[in-house]
Amino acid sequence: MTTESGTNRITGRGMTMSDVLARFARVTPDAPAFVDAGTGERRSYGEADDRVTRLANALTAGGVREGDRVAVLGLNSIPLIEAYLATLRAGALCVPVNFRLVADEIAYALTDSGAVAVVVDQALAPQLEKARAQAPSVEQVVTIGGDLEDVLAAASPDYVELPVPDEATAYIMYTSGTTGRPKGAMLSHRNLFLHAFSSTAHLGSSGSGGVWMSGAPLFHIAGLAGMLPSLLTGGTTIIPPSGGFDPAATVATLERERVASCFFVPAQWAAIVAVPDIAERDLSSLTKLSWGAAPASTTLLRKMIDTFPHADVVTSFGQTECSPVTTTLKGEDSIRKIGSVGTPMINVECRVVDDEMNDVPRGEVGEIVYRGPLVMSGYWNKPKETAEAFRGGWFHSGDLVRQDADGYYYVVDRKKDMIISGGENIYCAEVENVLAAHPEIGDVALIGVPDEQWGETPLAVIVPADPANPPTAASIEAYCREHLAAYKRPRRLSIVDALPRNPSGKVLKTQLREENQAGSLVSRPAV
Questions:
Q1: Alpha-carbon distance 287 to 283, whole Å?
Q2: Are 333 and 357 in contact (CB under 8 A)?
Q3: Residues 228 and 17 sit within 8 Å (Cβ to Cβ)
Q4: Could you please report the per-residue DSSP string of 335-361?
Q5: Are 111 and 153 spatial neighbours (Cβ–Cβ below 8 Å)?
Q6: CA 467, 472, 475, 476 torsion: positive or negative?
Q7: What is the pLDDT of residues 216-264, one digit of tens each?
Q8: Mean per-residue pLDDT, 139-167
Q9: E-assigned strand segments in 407-500
Q10: Which residue from 155, 217, 408, 513 could staple onto 54, CB 3.0 to 4.6 Å apart?
Q11: What spatial distance separates the first Cα and last Cα of the chain, rounded to whole Å?
């Protein structure tokens, strides 16, 4: 590494997304970088860059070193994004934490990652305090809405660039699996930078100054990675408020901010196209409408196409471990190939294979596997799980697909036991492990059943420990409130005498789905 004469900027290094912010702070410092749709707060590139530098220096002064992990736990806001970028600028690894998690779940993310610092939203500080009792590694806490502004004011404004290599891990994104314990997918600076570049090159962009918006929370890979193409091209990112989704307010924001490109999950799109005066709103700025993270019906897609005839409807498919988009169905194919998830994006190589890694003929079902510069390096501190995920030299997605004669992919099923409800992944083994510890439950299986609002919703099929005294919905709900985030909790309950199993002891979930979609549900109120 060499240093430019008269500066502290290191040459011969890679570029991170924090560097991209600094670039536009130099080139277009007054251009709008971020807009908070809930509060109306706005931040230019110059303002954001100064705050990112100050926070990075404050984290460093507080003991954060290159390679350390900094957890960020907050509601959607501009300071949340600044915390992400400041962590990268400090040479540390950012660990976004789902704000819906309970204290036990937050503690797991902190202890597994070994986080030494946390940037937390004031509204979530009580949960963090409970979690810290189990996370001795945390030494520094900065609170958004609390001491953050004082911390920034006291910090040095001097930009100190560190020699962070492209292949270094930028984010640890926690995603669960069949073990029931969350796994931290390690996404490098290169992964995310090339994903932003690939998305822009593959799908096009609205150019410098373009406006992008997403309905995804910023702790989610769709929200985090989704904003990067806008940042890469010097555009404006509109940040939605956290909490309940308001379709009328969203449409008003799309109109007011002249949004060009946006991403929402199917449940959100269904609510948007149902807004009564949608046809009268001036949404002519919209050029690209993206959806993903959960299945969408062909009825909804046709409604989107009819409602926004001037815009391309784009299907995005992938997963956290791939930064995340792997295949897309572009606007020109949205009707001709409706129901497909499209073809591979630039810098993604795909195969459809059987259990022995043999390619299956087109038209037959197999698992889609990936390789390329967008795929993660592995799972944090989990070599066994990493080796299993990359067996045969390709990343195994767990998604079962078929490919038509033209090379377009169609998702058939999910190999892993995963429920997608309103765009959130719910992993059966994790919830089952929690429920199994309930003293009144003898055996349990979680399945997804159709839901008009959320696409799928979790149903717990329970064998009572004492058949004469089965657990009530109220007791299970109270138990789950202590141990599971709200979106993971079963919305429906079915009491059975025994779970159907095959000779090896595996629960026959296909049979459970058939039985419980036939009307034998015992429902309880949603929370």
A1: 9
A2: no
A3: yes
A4: TTTTT--BEEPTT-EEEEE-TTSPBPP
A5: no
A6: positive
A7: 899 999 999 999 999 999 999 999 999 888 999 999 999 999 999 999 9
A8: 94
A9: 409-414, 418-421, 424-427, 441-451, 455-464, 492-495
A10: 155
A11: 55
Local structure of residue 509 (DSSP, 8 states): H
Region of residue 455 (phi > 0: left; psi between -120 and 50: alpha; otherwise: beta): left
CA distance 453 to 166: 41
Distance CA 504, CA 518 (A): 26
- Nearest-angstrom CA–CA distance, 200 and 205: 5
Q: What is the pLDDT of residues 385-440, one digit of tens each?
A: 999 999 999 999 988 889 999 999 998 766 666 788 888 878 777 788 789 889 89
List Cα–Cα distances, 289 to 9, 310, 322, in angstroms. 39, 10, 21
Cα dihedral 80, 85, 86, 87 sign? positive
Closest CA to 280 of 255, 253, 263: 255
Q: E-assigned strands of 109-189?
A: 117-121, 140-144, 169-175, 183-188
Domain with CATH 3.30.300.30 in the chain: 418-523
Query: Is 16-401 a domain of CATH 3.40.50.12780?
Result: yes
Cβ–Cβ under 8 Å, residues 349 and 371: yes
Is 418-523 CATH 3.60.40.10? no
Buried b (16+ CB within 10 A) or exposed e, 4-31: eeeeeeeeeeeebbbbbbbbbbeebeeb
Which pTM value belongs to this model?
0.82
Q: Which residues pair with 377 in a beta bridge?
A: none
Q: Confidence band (pLDDT; 50, 70, 90) for 368?
A: very high
Is residue 225 exposed (0-12), middle (13-18) or buried (19+ Cβ within 10 Å)?
A: buried
CATH 3.40.50.12780 residue ranges in the chain? 16-401
| Distance in angstroms (rounded) separating the CA atoms of residues 496 and 478 | 21
Written as one letter, the residue type at 240 is P
Identify the three-state secondary structure at position 248: helix
The token duo for 308 is 């926004």
